[in-house]
């Protein structure tokens, strides 16, 4: 897998540590934590600037200290991301399929682009022009995400069984790029599998390992929105990657947190 960009690492740091600090981190803390990850101060500040332009972060001074606060929209997205990363259920046939149909007037074509982008980000597959499909388990999250961007008025939601003439496994391979998905899972396992042998890592080392690992992982539950194993290729690589992530999360999260809190309160 490619090395995470500094702005991705910063987003992970804020997602992990800012919310227990009233959604805010000082400039000095961000620079120090990024330095621990091998990113120099100028690159860290440049990446923060880009995140501020996207309203992911906002400049806020607290107690005379310069810092960055999470925007309200980012706080909400991070909250939903917690479920995706740590508690996304693997769907089954019993959950059915969620189908989203949308129609956007030509005069509002930018809303059509926004809808496609948001559904793609949520992990929906494209079944036909204007018709998107996902496991039925995604309904609540999809409604919240589209409502947050005022897009639900353009959509209709349906949930039920697949009753087409073709095999649903073959259809899934058309709706999602399963080969790319499997390759990314394999790359994650190859990149981080060796780390499971390290026991009782020191806090600083755990932090240097955990943040990049989590950054690499957090996009995968959005590419694979819990697709049912019954219809995925046998020995699906996502199962191995999920087990590895769970092991590393258990091994590294607490000592990494110890290091980060020492920096934040040092």
Report the biggest beta sheet as strand number plus sense, adding barrel if it closes: 4 strands, antiparallel
Number of helices: 11
Quick check: average pLDDT? Answer: 94
* Uncertain segments: none
Strand content bin: 5-15%
Helix residue percentage: 55-70%
* Count of discrete domains: 3
Order of helices and strands: HEHHEEHEHEEHEHHHHH
Query: How many β-strand stretches?
Result: 7
End-to-end distance, in Å?
34 Å
Class by alpha and beta content? alpha+beta
Widest sheet: strand ordering: 5-6-4-7
| Rg | 20 Å
- What sort of overall outline do the alpha carbons produce when their principal axes are compared? globular
Would you kindly provide a written description of the structure presented here, covering whatever features stand out?
The structure is a single chain. The protein has helices at residues 6-18, 27-36, 41-53, 72-87, 109-122, 139-148, 168-175, 178-192, 203-217, 220-223, 237-265; strands at residues 24-26, 57-62, 65-70, 97-102, 125-128, 131-135, 155-160. It is of the alpha+beta class. The protein has three domains: 6-73, Arc Repressor Mutant, subunit A; 97-160, Alpha-Beta Plaits, CATH 3.30.70; 177-257. It has a four-stranded antiparallel β-sheet with strand order 5-6-4-7. A hairpin with a 2-residue loop joins strand 2 and strand 3. Helix 5 packs antiparallel against helix 6 (139-148) and helix 9 crosses helix 11 (237-265). The longest helix has 29 residues, at 237-265.
């Amino acid at each position: 897998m490619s090395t995470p960009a500094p702005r991705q690492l910063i987003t992970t740091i804020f997602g992990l540590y800012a919310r227990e600090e009233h959604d805010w981190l000082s400039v000095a803390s961000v620079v120090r934590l990024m330095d621990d990850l091998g990113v120099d101060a100028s690159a860290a500040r440049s990446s923060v600037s880009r995140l501020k332009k996207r309203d992911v972060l906002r400049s806020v001074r607290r107690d005379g200290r310069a810092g960055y606060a999470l925007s309200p929209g980012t706080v909400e997205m991070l909250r939903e991301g917690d479920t995706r990363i740590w508690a996304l259920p693997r769907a089954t046939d019993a959950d059915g399929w969620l189908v989203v149909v949308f129609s956007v007037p030509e005069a509002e074509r930018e809303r059509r682009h926004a809808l496609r982008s948001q559904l793609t980000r949520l992990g929906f597959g494209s079944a036909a022009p204007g018709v998107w499909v996902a496991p039925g388990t995604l309904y609540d999250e999809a409604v919240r995400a589209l409502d947050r961007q005022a897009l639900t008025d353009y959509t209709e939601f349906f949930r039920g069984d697949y009753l087409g003439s073709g095999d649903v496994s073959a259809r899934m391979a058309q709706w999602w790029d399963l080969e790319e998905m499997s390759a990314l899972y394999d790359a994650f396992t190859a990149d981080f599998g060796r780390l499971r042998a390290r026991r009782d890592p020191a806090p600083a080392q755990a932090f240097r390992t955990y943040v990049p690992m989590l950054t690499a992982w957090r996009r995968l539950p959005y590419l694979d929105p819990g697709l049912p194993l019954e219809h995925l290729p046998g020995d699906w690589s996502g199962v191995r990657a999920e087990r590895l992530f769970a092991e590393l999360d258990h091994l590294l999260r607490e000592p990494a947190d110890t290091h980060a809190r020492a920096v934040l309160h040092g």
